[in-house]
Amino acid sequence: MNGAVRPVAGMIAPAQLAQAPGAAAQEGALRLPSGLEARLFEVLTDRPAGAGLVYRFRYVAPGFTAGAARLDSIAADLAWLCEEHALGRIANIGPQPGQVVISLADREAEFGVYDSAVAEVFEAYRIEGDRCIWEMF
Which has the closest alpha carbon to 29: 20, 19, 39, 21? Predict the structure, then answer.
C-alpha cells in the first residue's frame, strides 16, 4: 500500500467521516473566509514512503481562481477548511494522520491527473491538538 492513494471509504465509513447524514458529496456548502462557498468533493488517504498516514481533503468552490494577487485569501481559506472542517472529521476515526492535505479547486478533477482547465491549490498541515500547522512542501 506504500504510495497508493485510496478513498478513505475503504477504511472508514463515509457517514463516520462526514459525521452527518449521507456521504461527503451530500454535505452542505461551507462559507469560506474569502466569501466563496465550497463543498467537500472527496477524501483520500495514503502512506507516502517515510511520511506516515496522510488524509487528503479535496474541496470544490465554483468561481475559485488562483493567483498571486489572492495568496493571502487562499491561505486563509485553506487553513479554515483544515481547522473548521477537516479536523472535526478525523478526530474520532481511529488512526490519526501525520499530515492533512487540503486542496481547493474550481471543479471536480481526477486526483493526480493534470488538467490545465482546472484551477487548484493545495497545502499540507500537521495536526497539533485542535490546530493545523502549515508545512511547506
Answer: 39
Residue 36's identity, in one-letter code, is L
User: Domain for residue 94, yes or no?
Assistant: yes
From 80, 94, 91, 97, select the one nearest 44 (Cα to Cα).
Answer: 97
Q: What is the domain range of residue 61?
A: 17-109
The set of residues, in sequence order, having a beta carbon less than 8 Å from that of 17 and lying 6+ positions away, is 8, 9, 24, 43, 89, 90, 93
Between CA 107 and CA 83 the distance in angstroms is 22
* Grid cell locating 29: 456548502
pTM for this prediction: 0.80
Domain count for the chain: 1
Percent of the chain past pLDDT 70, that is, above it, reads 80
Residue with cell 463515509: 14
pLDDT band per the 50, 70, 90 thresholds, residue 68: confident
Q: CA angle, corner 36, sides to 33 and 39, nearest 5? A: 105
